[in-house]
Amino acid sequence: MNSFADVFRHYTPDVAPFMHKMLAYYQETQPYKGFSIVHNVPLTQTTLMKIACLKAAGAELVVTNPSFMQEDSNTIKVLEYEQIPYVPLELVKGEFDFLLDCGAELVENCHATKGIVELTRTGAMRYQQHTEFHVPIVSVDDTRLKCLETCLGTGEGVYRAITQIADTDLTNRNVLIFGFGKVGIGIAYYFSKITPNIIVAEADNERLKLIEQRGYQSVNARNSQEVEKAAEKSDLIVTATGLKDIISNNYHPQAFKSKLLANAGAEDEFGFAFETSEVLADKKPVNFILKEPTLMEFLDPIFYAHNIAIDDALNNKKTGFRALDKTTDEAIVTDWAKHHCWTLEKLNSIF
């Protein structure tokens, strides 16, 4: 694919209805004409649809790529063709109207004059810790629609990546998952299709109850001995807590050795006690070894939300951190479910 038009031809309205609708509307209205926007979202061919919409909206764009993944050289060539500057993350700095961020990686060197939109839980927590921002900070992670991407999309991507590169058939094998947030829930859902032997380590009491209600085994993450026992009998161990070094800081690493290890978080969750060679994808988010880490049907609604959250910041100028408007959130989930033939009841049973 050599241009934005090629990308939109490849991902048809059946696959990406939100992006096609947004492109048509932005081409007609150009709502962000003259706005300077720095865009820090994993740079893959799917992300080009999101960037194309912002260009159509009239924005003056600078595009970069998060530190936890390698930028895609073909995608950068498309940006060059479309005359949109790509700047490595460490070189992005200065004042912009909007920061469209992933993991709060723009926070140190960039200043927003109108608003900030954050994509991830890790980034949302970082922005909540910063009180010096005097603009709206809108999180699309604190939404139900984020589950479409993070729970279903990331869960499917992690499952797809691990099963593709594992040296062994994981059918009916023992799987241990750390964390039962959005990502952990999705990973458990997809692996439950091939094995009933799933244990989830979680520290939150309410989530421990939910794990059992969903038919999985649970282990209290605070009980290191029980966790290590679970690790010793596992064939595959996947981290999805969002917490750096959580395994190295809390458990004896020997219990995890000679297992298939995979990290699903932006941070290195296995940590300093593990060599990069001991964890799939060198400790980076395992689904990012794939050409499409998350399938477009799951990215489509969150890309849409990440862009239109600019409107949220423009319409409600209250400063500080908040989630995307709930009415917008619910409408996107309902439209996505209808388009892709999921029932809201089925979604409710998963997340």
List the main descriptive attributes of the protein structure presented here:
alpha/beta, six-stranded parallel beta sheet, 40% helix, five-stranded parallel beta sheet, Rossmann fold, 13 helices, NAD(P)-bd_dom_sf
Commentary on this structure:
This protein has 351 residues and is α/β, with parallel strands linked by helices. The chain has helices spanning 4-10, 17-29, 47-56, 73-81, 121-129, 146-165, 182-191, 205-213, 224-232, 246-250, 296-315, 326-339, 344-350, and strands spanning 36-40, 60-64, 94-101, 110-118, 136-139, 175-178, 198-202, 217-220, 236-239, 260-263, 320-323. The chain folds into 2 domains: 4-139 and 295-350, Rossmann fold, CATH 3.40.50.1480; 151-289, Rossmann fold, CATH 3.40.50.720. It is 40% helix and 16% strand. Strands 2-1-3-4-5-11 form a 6-stranded parallel sheet. Strands 8-7-6-9-10 form a 5-stranded parallel sheet, sandwiched between helices. Helix 2 (17-29) runs parallel beside helix 3 and helix 6 (146-165) packs antiparallel against helix 11. The chain is globular and about 60 Å long.
